[in-house]
């Protein structure tokens, strides 16, 4: 690693620069680790556990909405994706409020489909094992939050991760089903 710094101020310039580099590396490592886990390990519940640990380690606020809360919020489109899976969906909200209270937050949203079989309309077999990567957005948000926590950014950041599995079963959403979104519009699957 080469870092250019003024010789007179090297110590005061290098320490924060190296700390930032380590924090970013650790965030990237978490993102890669989550992406490389098998889908029977990296489930919505696992991602919620990672979010709670990040919150404990770095003082973030965390809220994990469960199925009953999602139903009460009428999040029908999201719940339709999770309908065929035995794995419970989770809606994760992380908050780092390190900036001025009056400043609007930066909001990061990550898709967390930990396995996307295509539901009842199964995707083609070749490459199906790669559908575990549909949670890459969620992994990126969680990795970014690790870096944010280690750097203790003076910024307000909210991370949102909607995570579930899309699996076939007798309960799965079918082509032609109509679901209602949280904000009211309906969608035909």
> Order of strands side by side in the largest beta sheet?
1-2-4-3
The gross shape turns out to be elongated
Averaged pLDDT:
92
In N-to-C order, the SSE pattern is HHEHHEEHEEE
Helix fraction by DSSP (H/I, runs of at least 4): 25-40%
Helices, by number, come to 5
**Low confidence ranges:** none
User: How many DSSP-defined strands?
Assistant: 6
| Proportion of beta-strand residues | 15-25%
Q: Terminal Cα separation, in Å?
A: 51 Å
Task: Provide keyphrases for this structure.
single chain; 189 residues; two-stranded antiparallel sheet; elongated
Structural overview:
The model has no long low-confidence stretch (mean pLDDT about 90). The protein has a 4-stranded mixed beta sheet, with helices on both faces. A two-stranded antiparallel ribbon has the order 5-6. The chain contains 5 helices and 6 strands. Helix 1 runs antiparallel to helix 5 and helix 2 packs parallel to helix 5. The chain is elongated. It has about 190 residues and is an alpha+beta fold. Strand 3, helix 5 and strand 4 form a beta-alpha-beta unit.
Offer a concise description of the structure.
The chain is built from five helices and six strands. It has helices spanning 10-36, 44-58, 67-72, 76-82, 136-151, and strands at 61-65, 90-97, 106-116, 156-166, 178-180, 186-188.
Write the layout of secondary structure elements.
Blueprint: H1 10-36, H2 44-58, E1 61-65, H3 67-72, H4 76-82, E2 90-97, E3 106-116, H5 136-151, E4 156-166, E5 178-180, E6 186-188
Parallel strand pairs: 3-4
Antiparallel strand pairs: 1-2, 2-4, 5-6
Helix pairs in contact: 1-5, 2-5
């Amino acid at each position: 690693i080469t870092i250019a710094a003024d010789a007179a101020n090297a110590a005061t310039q290098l320490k924060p620069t190296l700390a930032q580099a380590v924090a970013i590396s650790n965030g990237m490592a978490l993102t890669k680790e989550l992406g490389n886990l098998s889908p029977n390990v990296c489930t919505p519940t696992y991602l919620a556990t990672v979010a709670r640990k990040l919150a404990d380690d770095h003082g973030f606020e965390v809220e994990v909405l469960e199925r009953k809360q999602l139903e009460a919020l009428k999040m029908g489109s999201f719940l339709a994706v999770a309908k065929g899976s035995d794995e419970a969906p989770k809606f994760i909200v992380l908050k780092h409020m390190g900036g001025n209270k009056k400043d609007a937050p930066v909001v990061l949203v990550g898709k967390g489909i930990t396995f996307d079989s295509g539901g009842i309309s199964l995707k083609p077999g070749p490459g199906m094992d790669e559908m575990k990567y549909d949670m890459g957005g969620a992994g990126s948000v969680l990795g970014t939050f690790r870096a944010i926590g280690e750097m203790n950014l003076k910024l307000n950041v909210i991370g949102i991760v909607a995570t579930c599995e899309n699996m076939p079963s007798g309960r799965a959403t079918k082509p032609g089903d109509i679901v209602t979104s949280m904000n009211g519009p309906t969608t035909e699957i």
